[in-house]
Design a protein that fits this description.
Elements (H helix, E strand, L loop, with lengths): L6 E2 L12 H5 L4 E9 L3 H8 L5 E8 L6 H7 L3 E4 L9 H8 L6 E6 L2 E2 L2 H12 L6 E8 L2 E2 L2 E2 L7 E8 L3 E3 L18 E3 L2 E4 L5 E2 L5 H25 L15 H12 L5 H12 L6 H27 L7 H11 L3
């Protein structure tokens, strides 16, 4: 597999960080590099970068954006690294872990539609300087859920994942070999950590300013990818070559994988997910937005299962999964 990348260097320029006591008192930068994987994120980039004052370094890992993503990033002091995907493993963020020379002890992955609140920076600062964390190699964080302009308290849409880890101590799982025509970034792949993991409690702010149509289009592509992953699991009994182990009593990533392994074989799964989010997790308390979000989640699972059925009709097996994946992508309008 061939990967091509170019690096655009820029000098750090002063950013307009939020006025608050913690940001103003950060004199020694935290020993971490924030990595933002992006493509055409002009609508989100400035707000994301504006909240990263405590980081020693910021890298925007771009995929040839055609909007002002790279320009905004450079103007606000980030280094821009370009990535071109030609299929297979590694994808975007793992490629950076393999190829980039990190100067900091810690690496922190966020998305362009996420904002690190001051309270989370304070918790990160405390965690990295706490002697009790001397042997800690990674931290699990919560990705908060904002939808249609509102922060959700109910519905169970937030999830936990490893996002902050010591350099050289984590790698992304290898689930399937995506074709070059599909998404180049790890979305539902999780980081496997070689070491001790602890949990931070303050959630990231996750809010996309590109609108509901972009959100739905993105999840249509995600459902194609998940159909291929599930198809492989149903035919082989495992998710991939190098994966998070499903454990009911493991960390949040392992527990989530255990529950998903059960869900893939349950009849009426889309309806059960709707009931889980809307009734059990009290999504109805979010009003009309909550109803819409729960419906989209249910429809997403329905799309996944429909695409698995389509792959079966096409005669896709574990050995011919990539070809079936290409078929699903073409039929999804990619």
């Amino acid at each position: 597999m061939l990967l091509a990348a170019t690096r655009q260097n820029s000098s750090r320029k002063e950013c307009l960080f939020p006025e608050n006591s913690f940001m103003r008192t950060v004199q020694n930068k935290l020993p971490l590099t924030v990595v933002i994987a992006a493509k055409n994120e002009e609508a989100n980039m400035a707000k994301c970068l504006d909240a990263l004052a405590p980081a020693q370094k910021i890298v925007v890992l771009d995929s040839g954006s055609t909007d002002r993503t790279g320009i905004i990033a450079e103007q606000m002091g980030a280094e821009v690294v370009q990535f071109r995907y030609t299929g297979g493993y590694p994808k975007k963020r793992q490629w950076l872990l393999d190829q980039y020379s990190f100067e900091t002890e810690w690496v922190f992955f966020i998305d362009a539609d996420e904002v690190v609140p001051v309270s989370l920076w304070q918790e990160i600062s405390d965690a990295l300087t706490d002697p009790a964390n001397e042997n800690t190699d990674a931290f699990i964080m919560t990705k908060g859920f904002h939808f249609m302009g509102k922060k959700f308290r109910f519905g169970g849409f937030s999830h936990k994942a490893v996002l902050l880890f010591r350099k050289g101590k984590a790698r992304f799982e290898h689930l399937i070999n995506d074709p070059a025509s599909f998404q180049d970034m790890e979305v539902h792949e999780r980081l496997i950590v070689n070491g001790q993991i602890r949990t931070l409690h303050t959630p990231l702010i996750h809010e996309d300013f590109k609108g509901l149509s972009a959100y739905i289009d993105r999840h249509n592509k995600y459902s194609t990818w998940e159909a291929a992953v599930r198809s492989g699991y149903l035919s082989t009994g495992h998710y991939g070559k190098d994966t998070i182990q499903p454990r009911l009593f493991g960390n949040p990533q392992e527990r989530r994988r255990f529950l998903k392994a059960i869900a893939v074989s349950i009849p009426f799964e889309p309806y059960l997910w709707f009931l889980y989010h809307y009734i059990f997790k009290l999504g109805f308390l979010e009003g009309k937005r909550g109803l819409v979000a729960c419906q989209i989640r249910s429809n997403y699972i329905a799309q996944v299962r429909a695409k698995i059925y389509e792959m079966k009709l096409a005669g896709t097996t574990a050995e011919t999964q990539t070809a079936g994946f290409e078929l699903a992508i073409n039929n999804s309008g990619k």
